[in-house]
Amino acid sequence: MVRKNLAHVGLALLFLGMFCTTSSAATLRVGHPNTSCPNAQYTTITAAINAAAPGDVIEICPALYPEQLIITKPLILRGVLTKVNIESYLPCCNEVKRVLIQPNLQDLQGLAVEAVITVMDTEDVTIDNLAIDASHNTVAGCDIGLSAVHFYNASGRLKNSAVFGAQLPNPQNCST
User: Cα 111 to the chain's mean position, in Å?
Assistant: First the structure.
């Protein structure tokens, strides 16, 4: 009886093993040339996002990235700590050894919101250990919103990150 049950269990496991697939997330690394960022495959975050498959992890080495990001698939963007002197990249923040994303903002998706990072039409996006600066924006009036990170029809997490510079030039003249 025990042999027969073991045979059935073994057959069931074999059957499940044949039809179940496992997927593992790839890790893509972004870093600037001539820095001590080992194994960097990309020099821009945008290139890594475009190359990534859903569920992949994008590790970003400390530097200044003047990019405006659009994420439309489940990803993890993670700023990593490395032994690198980034004072030449971050003259404003001598002791900050983080990833700084600081683009000149535009309304790229027609959403009437300028954002450093736009996450849209997806879920399960994690943004971790980044410094996100929205101060280089072109918002001059009240018609366009301003955000450092904007989730549009999307969900995710913003963890261990610094967000700053998302201020309208004259909000007193805007009605709520």
Answer: 19
pTM over 0.85: no
Is 38 part of any domain? Answer: yes
Question: What is the domain range of residue 36?
Answer: 23-173
> What's the CATH number where 28 sits?
2.160.20.10
For residues 9 and 7, give the distance between their C-alpha atoms in angstroms, rounded to a whole number: 5
91: burial class by Cβ within 10 Å (0-12, 13-18, 19+)?
A: exposed
Tokens of 71: 């994420």
In a domain, 7, yes or no: no
Distance CA 99, CA 60 (A): 7
Total structural domains in the chain?
Answer: 1
> Is there a domain that residue 13 lies in?
no
Please report the pLDDT score of residue 56 as a whole number. Answer: 98
Q: Consecutive sets of 10 residues in the chain, 176 residues long: mean pLDDT of each?
A: 54 48 81 84 97 97 90 96 49 53 62 82 96 80 77 94 78 64
Tokens of 91: 């003259």
Residues comprising the chain, all counted:
176
Q: Is residue 10 part of a domain?
A: no
Q: Determine the residue type at 156.
A: G
